[in-house]
Structures are given as structure tokens and as C-alpha cells.
Amino acid sequence: KLKIYLLLKILKYTDIITVTGSQTKDKLINLGLNKNKIFIYPHLIDSKYLKDCKPVKLKYNLLTITSFFPLKRTIDSIKSLMLINKEGFNFKLAVLGDGPQKKYCENFVRENNLEKNVHFYGYVKDIRPFLNNSQYFIQTSTSEGLSLALVEAMGVGLIPIVTDVGDERDLITETKNGFFVNVGMPNEIAKKIIQI
User: What is the pLDDT of residues 97-127, one digit of tens each?
Assistant: First the structure.
């Protein structure tokens, strides 16, 4: 609450506030900020650049890009893969990123014998080979603005399955170009993928 209080104090004295989507703008207006000072500047990508990469032997069904902070709930992506494979599939998940809960996730993978299906790559400078060799983009966060990784994934045609916690609805229409799931529900992710 202190962070929000301080942020609002600062923002009240700014001339222009930029946000990445309409839900964030609405939240700030509801907190009492002047709507005429808030402008939406969404993330932009060059889809031609994103698709331009050397062919590689990587093939993943699921891709998640994370900072491994608790609010990212990366473990939910791994649990969803485990549930999918319990239904007879042999899906693979690429996990890009580093952070404080990475060891916890790696231990979970080992304890559940998922080493052949879940691959941790750490920080990756060029994510294009992963974007172009995956089918689904998974985002399991409890909080987001508008994820640049989501925009990039959609830019190359991945099907997004994401929690509805930020400005994702500016990009995704349920069942038309992606899917929403509730936070902390890896079974919903698994069910959506199995149904597709």
C-alpha cells in the first residue's frame, strides 16, 4: 500500500503518464488521476525481425519467459505440462529466464522426472529461435502491465494462454486469438491445450 501511495503522490504532479494498455489506464483513473494526462503507448514489435532467424533443431510445444519471481508463478507452467503429459501427450516446455525461484522449479522438475520435457535455458539474448519453434506461449503471472514477451509471441503466431491480470485483453479475444486462465490454476492451462 505504501508503494501505491507514493506512486500516486508522484503521478499527481506529472504532466504526462504513459501506460501500456486500457486496463492500466482505467486503474489509474479509478485511483483518482486525471484521465487527460494518461496516454496509452502499447509495446510495438517488428514481426519481420522476430521471424528472421536461423533454423534450429529446437522444437517445443510450450514456451514461457520468466523472471522467476513469486508473482510470475512459473511453477504453474511446469505443472500444466505435467498434467498434459499425464493425459498421454509428450509435450516439451522451454523456460527462458533467471531469478530467485529457478532452483525451486528445477528441483520440482527433477522430483517429478520431467527432465526430458522441461528445459531451462536461463537468460537468453536472442529469443527468436524459441519463439519460432514453439506452439503455445504460457503466462502465469499474478500481475502484469502488458508483457512484451506476450506481444512478441503473438507476433510470430504462437497461441497465448495467459492469466488475465494486466492489459492482455487489449490484444487477446478469448477463443479467437488466445485464451485466458485463472491465476494459480495449471489444470485450466492443461485443459485449454488438450481441447485445442
Answer: 999 999 999 999 999 999 999 999 999 999 9
